[in-house]
Every structure is written in structure tokens, then in C-alpha cells.
């Protein structure tokens, strides 16, 4: 199983546009959830915790700008990158002026290639391992593109699950992950795995990371889960 792919939420009221986006995003290997309006969008933001939102400006009732404001006002969701789609460049200027907190803007009609490039730029920042980047923490290096891990310059041998687990931890050093969050990210949301399974794999990961000596870098957070560093 590959590293859980980034989940993209598409908020667009026009069905044809939505389908084009879904097709292209899935072709790029992303998982896609879709909303037609603001209420659906806010529900999916809470339920799916998407890695990125492609948000149309022109929506019925609640505008894209308002959704953007709400997402960026909530500490639990403000780190989710938002790319706004706008029909006219004047709107983009207005959006910029309003400083809604959108991370990027694309003017319709847009080139799919350009939109995907902008999307990857955002995700390289927030989901670097899933985008094949090279990550480092202390003396550990994880090369997601080459699928290799080194500690103190020496190659380590990790099973596929331990590799995904380490990728997840290395994307956010210091973040405390609950077992449920790790299961969602490492195994995927649709698969039922007992939370104790995660403890087994953390044990294996620690052993692999300490194979050539060195401290245990994966901290157990009592009553919660795990953190790197
Ligand atoms: Ca629209």
C-alpha cells in the first residue's frame, strides 16, 4: 500500500466543473471528496480533514470567500491550504485585497496543468513525504522519492508500514498524534485496524531506527499516542 495519498476537497456548485476536477485530481493519485455548497463543504472539512481545498469563489448562499474565512478562523483547520478558483481576474484582485487567507488563486478558465502545479506546491509544504520529498529530523533522513531511510548516514531497513508511519511522523516533528489519527493516515480511513496494532508497528519502527545505536526518537505520549521528538 502506498503512503496514504493527500485528500483534496473540491467545493464547486457546477457539476461539470466538479467532475473535471475530480477526474484530474484522481489521475494525479489524490483522493477526492466533493461539496456543492458551503454547508456541505464545512461538514466535509470537519469529517474528512482534507489536506487541501480547491474552492470556487462563486457558490450559492455561502460564498467561497466566507468558507475560506471560516476555515482560516478555526485553529483546527487553518493550516489546510486553500486554492481559490475565480471566474474573473478582478475578483482575484478583490480577494487579495480582502486578505481572506487563501493560499493561492487560480483564474477561470484555468489550465489543469497549472492548477495541479499550484496544488503540488502547496502540498510539498504541508505533506512533503506524500509528495516524494526528502525529510530530515535530527540524524534521520527519509527520502520519500527513493523510499529510503538513513540514520547517522547508515541505511536502515524498514517494513512498508513502518516506512509510512515514519513518513507521517517526520512530516510534523513534535506533533502529538493519536492512535486513531495515525491509523487514518497510515492505513487509510476505510480500513478497520485495531488501535493496538499501531503500538506493535511503533515498536518495530523504534527497533529499526535504533538498529545501529542512537536514542529512541519516537516518544510515547501517555493516554494520547505518539510524537517524533
Ligand atoms: Ca461556481
Automatic annotation (TrEMBL):
<comment type="function">
    <text>This protein is a positive regulator for the phosphate regulon. Transcription of this operon is positively regulated by PhoB and PhoR when phosphate is limited.</text>
</comment>
<feature type="modified residue" description="4-aspartylphosphate">
    <location>
        <position position="56"/>
    </location>
</feature>
<keyword id="KW-0963">Cytoplasm</keyword>
<feature type="domain" description="Response regulatory">
    <location>
        <begin position="7"/>
        <end position="123"/>
    </location>
</feature>
<dbReference type="InterPro" id="IPR011879">
    <property type="entry name" value="Sig_transdc_resp-reg_PhoB"/>
</dbReference>
<dbReference type="GO" id="GO:0000156">
    <property type="term" value="F:phosphorelay response regulator activity"/>
</dbReference>
<keyword id="KW-0902">Two-component regulatory system</keyword>
<keyword id="KW-0805">Transcription regulation</keyword>
<feature type="DNA-binding region" description="OmpR/PhoB-type">
    <location>
        <begin position="132"/>
        <end position="229"/>
    </location>
</feature>
<dbReference type="InterPro" id="IPR001867">
    <property type="entry name" value="OmpR/PhoB-type_DNA-bd"/>
</dbReference>
<keyword id="KW-0597">Phosphoprotein</keyword>
<dbReference type="InterPro" id="IPR001789">
    <property type="entry name" value="Sig_transdc_resp-reg_receiver"/>
</dbReference>
<keyword id="KW-0592">Phosphate transport</keyword>
<dbReference type="GO" id="GO:0000976">
    <property type="term" value="F:transcription cis-regulatory region binding"/>
</dbReference>
<dbReference type="InterPro" id="IPR011006">
    <property type="entry name" value="CheY-like_superfamily"/>
</dbReference>
<dbReference type="InterPro" id="IPR016032">
    <property type="entry name" value="Sig_transdc_resp-reg_C-effctor"/>
</dbReference>
<keyword id="KW-0813">Transport</keyword>
<dbReference type="InterPro" id="IPR039420">
    <property type="entry name" value="WalR-like"/>
</dbReference>
<keyword id="KW-0804">Transcription</keyword>
<protein>
    <recommendedName>
        <fullName>Phosphate regulon transcriptional regulatory protein PhoB</fullName>
    </recommendedName>
</protein>
<dbReference type="Pfam" id="PF00486">
    <property type="entry name" value="Trans_reg_C"/>
</dbReference>
<dbReference type="GO" id="GO:0006355">
    <property type="term" value="P:regulation of DNA-templated transcription"/>
</dbReference>
<dbReference type="Pfam" id="PF00072">
    <property type="entry name" value="Response_reg"/>
</dbReference>
<dbReference type="GO" id="GO:0006817">
    <property type="term" value="P:phosphate ion transport"/>
</dbReference>
<feature type="domain" description="OmpR/PhoB-type">
    <location>
        <begin position="132"/>
        <end position="229"/>
    </location>
</feature>
<dbReference type="InterPro" id="IPR036388">
    <property type="entry name" value="WH-like_DNA-bd_sf"/>
</dbReference>
<keyword id="KW-0238">DNA-binding</keyword>
<dbReference type="GO" id="GO:0005829">
    <property type="term" value="C:cytosol"/>
</dbReference>
<keyword id="KW-0010">Activator</keyword>
<dbReference type="GO" id="GO:0032993">
    <property type="term" value="C:protein-DNA complex"/>
</dbReference>
Amino acid at each position: 500500500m502506498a503512503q496514504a495519498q493527500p485528500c483534496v476537497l473540491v467545493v464547486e456548485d457546477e457539476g461539470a466543473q466538479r467532475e473535471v476536477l475530480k477526474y484530474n485530481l484522481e489521475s494525479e493519485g489524490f483522493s477526492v471528496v466533493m461539496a456543492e455548497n458551503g454547508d456541505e463543504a464545512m461538514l466535509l472539512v470537519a469529517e474528512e480533514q482534507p489536506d487541501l481545498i480547491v474552492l470556487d469563489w462563486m457558490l450559492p448562499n455561502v460564498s467561497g470567500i466566507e468558507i475560506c474565512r471560516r476555515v482560516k478562523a478555526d485553529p483546527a483547520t487553518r493550516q489546510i491550504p486553500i486554492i481559490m478558483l475565480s471566474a474573473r481576474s478582478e475578483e482575484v484582485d478583490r480577494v487579495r485585497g480582502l486578505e481572506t487567507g487563501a493560499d493561492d488563486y487560480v483564474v477561470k478558465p484555468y489550465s489543469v496543468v497549472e492548477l495541479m502545479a499550484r496544488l503540488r506546491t502547496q502540498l510539498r509544504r504541508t505533506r512533503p513525504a506524500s509528495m516524494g520529498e526528502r525529510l530530515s529530523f535530527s540524524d534521520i533522513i527519509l527520502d520519500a522519492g527513493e523510499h529510503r531511510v538513513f540514520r547517522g548516514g547508515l541505511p536502515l531497513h524498514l517494513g512498508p508500514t513502518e516506512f509510512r508511519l515514519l513518513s507521517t511522523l517526520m512530516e510534523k516533528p513534535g506533533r502529538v498524534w493519536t492512535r486513531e489519527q495515525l491509523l487514518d493516515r497510515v492505513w487509510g480511513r476505510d480500513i478497520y485496524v485495531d488501535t493496538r496494532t499501531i503500538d506493535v508497528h511503533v515498536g518495530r519502527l523504534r527497533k529499526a531506527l535504533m538498529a545501529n545505536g542512537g536514542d529512541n526518537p519516537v516518544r510515547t505520549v501517555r493516554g494520547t499516542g505518539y510524537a517524533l521528538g
